[in-house]
């Protein structure tokens, strides 16, 4: 299977402190890839490097190559990279205006609804809210301030908003960490369905979650990928003793 994203010798430092060290990895289409590892190991930095958000942080230096569908992402504008590689953060981040305007914001930013991109905004918004299982819950209150939604609804709205411009890859940084069991189950079920349309990369501290929903798993330790492979193999027969120790310490 050809990869959709190729990472070669990626290294990131903040004020000369190395956070990621010579990361080499492939991401495959229509799969969920889980990123696991202890706090502070570089998981979130890795995620933000993929869509160039990390470059907005003060004191950062970055080297290496990231290729999306064969294109070097550093030859593209950050806006174009972020359209094609969307991201959702740990805590829900709805904008403080209506549900509808939350969904319309990225569409308008990228020119949807203009003569050049004339597809009806209402159709896109409805379709994406349906994709995350939210439309039936909010269809009669699209003018309501999005910050009044429940935490689980807010997170699904943020995922729908990221999907509105049809990215190729969706990045998720611990999207369920502040949610209860029911909302976590809803998000996991939704992600399993969405990976038929998108490639998904999820950072999670929940090893049960990684094992439940992901096709492949990367274990990061001290800024390096220690082990990567099919999730079942990595959890049941880890090749590196450090992987086994991490899994047994939390999962076993």
Automatic annotation (TrEMBL):
One Pfam family here: ABC_tran
Domain annotation ABC transporter: ranges: 5-247
Record's keyword terms, sorted: ATP-binding, Nucleotide-binding, Transport
InterPro entries: AAA+_ATPase (IPR003593), ABC_transporter-like_ATP-bd (IPR003439), ABC_transporter-like_CS (IPR017871), P-loop_NTPase (IPR027417), PstB-like (IPR005670)
Keyword Signal on entry: no
One GO CC term, this protein: membrane
GO molecular function, one term: ATP hydrolysis activity
GO BP of this protein: phosphate ion transmembrane transport
Keyword match tRNA processing: no
SMART domains: AAA
Record protein name field: ABC transporter related protein
Organism of this sequence: Aminobacterium colombiense (strain DSM 12261 / ALA-1)
């Amino acid at each position: 299977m050809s990869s959709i994203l190729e990472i070669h010798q990626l290294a990131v430092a903040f004020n000369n402190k190395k956070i990621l060290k010579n990361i080499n990895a492939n991401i495959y289409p229509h799969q969920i890839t889980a990123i696991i590892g202890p706090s502070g190991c570089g998981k979130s930095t890795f995620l933000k490097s993929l869509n160039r958000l990390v470059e907005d942080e003060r004191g950062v230096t970055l080297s290496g190559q990231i290729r999306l569908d064969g294109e070097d992402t550093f030859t593209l504008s950050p806006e174009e990279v972020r359209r094609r590689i969307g991201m959702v953060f740990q805590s829900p981040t709805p904008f403080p205006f209506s549900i509808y305007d939350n969904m319309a914001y990225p569409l308008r930013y990228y020119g949807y609804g203009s003569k050049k991109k004339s597809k009806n905004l209402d159709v896109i918004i409805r379709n994406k809210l349906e994709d995350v299982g939210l439309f039936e819950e909010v269809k009669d209150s699209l003018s309501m301030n999005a910050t009044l939604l429940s935490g689980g609804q807010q997170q699904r709205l943020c995922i729908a908003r990221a999907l509105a411009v049809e990215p190729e890859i969706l990045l998720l940084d611990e999207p369920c960490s502040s949610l209860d069991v029911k909302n976590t189950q809803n998000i996991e079920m939704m992600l399993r369905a969405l990976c038929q349309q998108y490639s998904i990369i999820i950072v999670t501290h929940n090893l049960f979650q990684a094992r439940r929903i992901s096709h492949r798993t990367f274990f990061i330790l001290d800024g390096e990928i220690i082990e990567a492979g099919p999730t079942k193999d990595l959890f049941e027969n880890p090749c590196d003793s450090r992987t086994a120790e991490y899994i047994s310490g939390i999962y076993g």
